[in-house]
Design a protein that fits this description.
2 copies of one chain form a homodimer. With about 100 residues, chain A is an alpha+beta fold. Chain A is built from 4 helices and 3 strands. In chain A, a hairpin with a 5-residue loop joins β2 and β3. Chains A and B meet through α1 and α4 of A and α1 and α4 of B. Chains A, B: This is Helix-turn-helix transcriptional regulator.
Chain lengths: ~100, ~100
């Protein structure tokens, strides 16, 4: 569950505030409607977030991290910080790897 | 890259010692030959691990984390520690969620 890319992205998306389905989808441009629904239900089932239907017209569905969900944000932010501080090194490595491969 | 489940699993597999392809595959029972090859090449291209062909007969290929690869182990271990300390709570939540759903 936690090694899954969209789980990581959705927890980060909700860490600051509750959001509605389409907001989450827009923020995570690459995710499909189906994948977002599946990941949100899995996170709800795990107790990582709550799903609230607000009685507006039309009704609005809002997703918010629970305490358990918030507690995952720490390790995920560490992973994000690692990525940000190493991305240039990784990009240099990829360039060097591709150049070496092109010479073979 | 780092949000990918198999990247996380393979870095953890190599964190203690270099290993050969089949060892890595056996330790990560669920991974296919193709997915393991693809993930190992991506990690090699990123500079996260080295691939060494030992001149034995038959030649043996060994994979080892680089300094960059080792540095990812910290945040990944944090994620693993989070999972281990919350797995029971998540399983209770899943049980409660399924029971509630069965009543609807």
């Amino acid at each position: 569950m936690i090694g899954d890319k969209w789980t990581v992205m959705i927890v980060l998306t909700l860490v600051d505030q509750p959001r509605r389905f389409n907001e989450i989808k827009r923020i995570n441009g690459g995710i499909s409607q189906q994948m977002l629904s599946r990941t949100l239900s899995a996170l709800e089932r795990d107790g990582m977030l709550t799903r609230t239907v607000n009685p507006t017209i039309p009704p609005q569905v809002e997703y918010a991290l629970t305490h358990l969900g918030q507690s995952l944000a720490g390790p995920i932010n560490e992973l994000g910080a690692w990525a940000r501080s190493h991305i240039l090194e990784i990009e240099r490595n990829r360039l060097a790897f591709d150049e070496a491969k092109a010479k073979v």
